[in-house]
Known about the structure:
By secondary structure, the protein is α/β, with parallel strands linked by helices. The protein has helices at 6-10, 24-37, 49-55, 76-88, 100-105, 108-122, 138-151, 169-179, 194-203, 213-224, and strands at 13-17, 41-44, 62-67, 93-97, 127-130, 155-157, 184-188, 207-210.
Amino acid sequence: MNPLSAQELARYIDHTALKADATARDIEKLCAEARQHGFHSVCVNGSRVAQAVHWLEDSGVKVASVVGFPLGAADVDTKRFETEAAADNGAHEIDLVLNIGWLKEGEDAYLLRELRDVVEAAEERPVKVIIEACLLAHEEKIRACHLIVESGAHFVKTSTGFSTGGATLDDVKLLRETVGPKFGVKAAGCIRDTATALAMIEAGATRLGTSAGVAIVTGVAARAGGY
């Protein structure tokens, strides 16, 4: 893999602010950084979507909204409504947390219904499904991937960043092997430096979720002597 420039690496990044205490000022700063560095998107909670859309107008940076975050345990209809609300507020992408308990119980039919409902509500917007890999056994990760691909979603995503662990290289490699070469794989959680970000891409990630996007692209620029 050829070395990525800072600009190229920036296009992998969903610049993220999902903490409960994030204020409007924090979201405005997030959007300003995304504009400056040319990140693919910002990823925010649903109540911040309209603000982010406003602050990123005419920038080319997309706005992703989380749904069912961070536990994934909300009712299916609630997740669908949350997706519709995010879309109405201008979100370009949806990051949905899978119902982990249902997955562990083998309730594949319910999961598939949930995923298809959200994909339908997203109206062709990319849907990234968070499986919270740190809570799953090897076989559960594989089964989750198969359901996500079957549902018509667009990405499988490793983690919320709010559970017991984040993205690992082994998980990214497993997800890539399971979904094949063309399906989206998003690594998120515990990606805080340039080396880790590049390793995740080398392992098969096509998108990175991180709150450390500025440090990551600055690290590339420093290695190369500037943008």
